[in-house]
Amino acid sequence: MILSDASIRKLVESDGLGIDPYDPQRVQPASIDVCLGTQFRVMRNSRLTHIDPRVHDNSIMDTVDVPIDEPFVLHPGEFALGHTSERLRLPDNLVGIVNGKSSLGRMGLQVHATAGFVDPGFEGVIVLELSNVANLPILLRPGMKIAQMVFQHLDQPAERPYGHPDLGSKYQGQSGAVASKYSENYR
Fold first, then answer.
1. What order of strands is seen across the sheet that includes strand 94-100?
2. Which of 115, 83, 98, 78 has its CA nearest to residue 33?
3. Would you call 159 exposed, middle or buried from its count of C-beta atoms within 10 A (0-12, 13-18, 19+)?
4. The one catalytic residue among 70, 129, 159, 184
5. Is the pLDDT of residue 58 over 80?
6. For position 49, what pLDDT does the model report?
7. Quick one: the chain helix, strand, coil %, rounded to 5?
8. Which residues pair with 99 in a beta bridge?
């Protein structure tokens, strides 16, 4: 069942769901708006010939820190990682779903390619997979409302929530625009 505005507020206020910073004005009828953080990762496509998911290579992406009062320019066809300014902490009986803002989607901005699901037990910022499918650059400003989080209750608490030692949860506690750790699957 998707949580309503009243349920989201009640969970946050009782510390059953962590959202920091929390602004009750951002709660929508069945979601909460989240804002864009200040760090981005962009591909170094001028120096590389390919990406091999089996190999961890820090040289694939450059980190760009953007001051709060300056825009990040996402060019047509470009991909970048960003993150929410909010840190989330989900209990073991709740999942989160990241959705783009309709108004930004109508300008050609996509906020996730496949990472739209947040597991129960996750704690950290949400990394956004930003793509510009428009034919003009889009200015993204840290602090702007960038996505919305929807929450759903599980039928029962997860036996092994995200972060459980058996799972090898690579992104637990992440901060900033964390790059892929897919290569850790081959260790």
1. 27-28, 31-35, 145-153, 94-100, 117-118
2. 98
3. exposed
4. 129
5. no
6. 80
7. 15, 35, 50
8. 148
Query: Which residues is 145 bridged to in the sheet?
Result: 35
Dist. CA 18–CA 91, nearest whole Å: 8
Question: Widest CA span of the chain, in angstroms?
Answer: 50
> Catalytic site residue 184?
no
Over 90: is that where the pLDDT of 184 sits? no
- In angstroms, rounded to a whole number, what is the distance separating the alpha carbons of residues 98 and 112? 8
Return the pLDDT at 4.
Answer: 98
Q: List all residues 6 or more positions away from 76 whose beta carbon is below 8 Å from its beta carbon.
A: 108, 132, 133, 134, 135, 136, 137
pLDDT tens digits, 130-161: 999 999 999 999 999 999 999 999 999 999 99
For residue 160, CA distances in Å to 19, 122, 132 come to 22, 11, 36
* Closest residue by Cα to residue 111 from 137, 87, 138, 82: 82
Q: Is the per-residue pLDDT at 59 higher than 80?
A: no
Sequential DSSP letters for 87-156: EEE--TTEEEEEEE-HHHHTTTEE--SS--EE-TT-EEEEEEEEEE-SSS-EEE-TTSEEEEEEEEE-SS
Tally Cβ neighbours within 10 Å of residue 187: 6
- Count the neighbouring beta carbons within 10 Å of the beta carbon of residue 38: 19
